[in-house]
Amino acid sequence: MAKLFRAVILGPPGSGKGTISERVASSFGLQHLSSGDFLRENIAAKTEAGVLAKTYIEKGALVPDHVMTRLMLPRLVEMTRHSWLLDGFPRTLAQAEALNSACELDVVISLNIPLETLKDRLRHRWIHPASGRVYNMRFNPPRVQGVDDISGEPLIQHEDDKPEALVARLRHYKDVAKPVIDLYRAKGILHMFSDTETDRIWPYVSSLLSAKIPTDLADAQRATTH
Ligand SMILES: Nc1ncnc2c1ncn2[C@@H]1O[C@H](COP(=O)(O)OP(=O)(O)OP(=O)(O)O)[C@@H](O)[C@H]1O
Ligand SMILES: Nc1nc2c(ncn2[C@@H]2O[C@H](COP(=O)(O)OP(=O)(O)O)[C@@H](O)[C@H]2O)c(=O)[nH]1
Asked: Is the pLDDT at 225 greater than 80, yes or no?
């Protein structure tokens, strides 16, 4: 069995983690696990972790590290026979250390996007809560404004995507993300991408992964996901 591939994508809110993760999943057959989507699934299912996490998310706070780790690591054990891309986890040094004790990462992609670009993107971000599908009225609008293309259900905007909420979120993100980025840079597996357009970043991410993922593995995974 070819060695499985493990990757993480890091970046501030609005940097394009979800957008790029979807492209990676469909191009390379990696399983995309988004901590935000997984939390929303647990909240909807009223699991113990979901009920607890909800109290923090409603206050716009990060979910405590021990709750996130206890939620995410068992999910990764279930995915142990797949190659995967983690999005939104790890977010803190404690989470990164817990993840590193559980598995060996091959690549960490870090998106470095200017503040004004993030503000503009999030101002126009619309989300279908149940599926986590993400739209943007300028970049990838839904066929019908305010309606999810697949389910026909209404799209929403996150309260904390508003510009006034964003500056505080970004300052907190920078403080919390820096030690995580430094850790993976020290491990020699960090790849930083800076631009204002996802379509200009994507070719570089795609060629990095093409070089890193063994072709037999990528072919096998594409076969299982289509
Ligand atoms: N790894 C994590 N550690 C702690 N809290 C998390 C983590 N991932 C998600 N959360 C919580 O869940 C909420 C929703 O996460 P989600 O990733 O969907 O949106 P976000 O973090 O606001 O950022 P983005 O705009 O980048 O998607 C976060 O605001 C945070 O409270
Ligand atoms: N204008 C523009 N919007 C983008 C670009 N890339 C992503 N977006 C949109 O910007 C918002 C944030 O992207 P998302 O993938 O959700 O970022 P995340 O918060 O890091 O997961 C979404 O509405 C995306 O559709 C881009 O290159 N240009």
From this structure: no
Identify the three-state secondary structure at position 104. coil
Q: Ligand 2: which residues within 6 Å by Cβ?
A: 11, 13-19, 121, 125, 134-136, 138-140, 197-199
The per-residue pLDDT for 164 is 81
Total Cβ atoms within 10 A of residue 96? 24
Q: Which residue has the tokens 């500056």?
A: 167
The predicted model scores a pTM of 0.92
Testing ligand 1's pocket by substitution, the residue of 91, 119, 120, 172 carrying the most ligand atoms inside 8 A of its CB is 91
Instruction: Measure the CA–CA gap between 27 and 51, rounded to whole angstroms.
Output: 35
Each domain of the chain, given as residue ranges in start order, spans 6-223
Q: pLDDT tens digits for 153-187?
A: 999 998 878 888 888 888 889 999 999 999 999 99
**Where do the H-state alpha helices sit in 29-145?**
35-44, 48-57, 65-78, 93-102, 115-123
Ligand 1: residue whose CA is nearest its atom 31: 62
CATH 1.10.10.10 for the 6-223 domain, yes or no: no
